[in-house]
Design goal:
Structural class: mainly beta
Strand content: over 45%
Order of helices and strands: EEEEEEEEEE
Distance between the termini: 21 Å
Helix content: under 10%
Number of helices: 0
Strand order of the largest sheet: 3-4-5-6
Largest sheet: 4 strands, antiparallel
Length: about 110
């Protein structure tokens, strides 16, 4: 699928990027605005990108290949968590290193 970055002040498209075969359904900026995390529907892949131009920095997969539904940075931007379609929440460093996985009481965490 494709994702797009727009300048909301000028209503101009800045760039477009590809991510797998499914629609990109989630993106979030790092606290300093330099990086974005993107997730695509029905895919286990999370991509860290340069916010300025969409260049991929790291491509990661969730444990067990579970669908990555949403991802968000910690307030200081050093880590991020991923809500998966599974019974766990993987935590990664902002450089893409897996840190730990937190179990959840249900297999449907969003």
């Amino acid at each position: 699928g494709k994702g797009q970055m727009w300048n909301v002040k000028t209503a101009k498209k800045l760039y477009e990027f590809e991510q797998g075969n499914e629609a990109v359904h989630h993106g979030t900026f790092s606290p300093d605005g330099s990086t974005i995390l993107t997730c695509a529907s029905k895919e286990p892949r999370i991509v860290l990108r340069k916010a300025a131009d969409g260049t991929p920095l790291h491509e990661l997969s969730t444990p067990g290949g579970r669908t990555a539904r949403q991802a968000d940075f910690s307030p200081d931007g050093t880590e991020f968590a991923v809500a998966t379609r599974g019974n766990e929440i993987p935590i990664f460093s902002a450089t893409g290193k897996p840190l730990l996985t937190i179990p959840t009481p249900t297999d449907q965490y969003y």
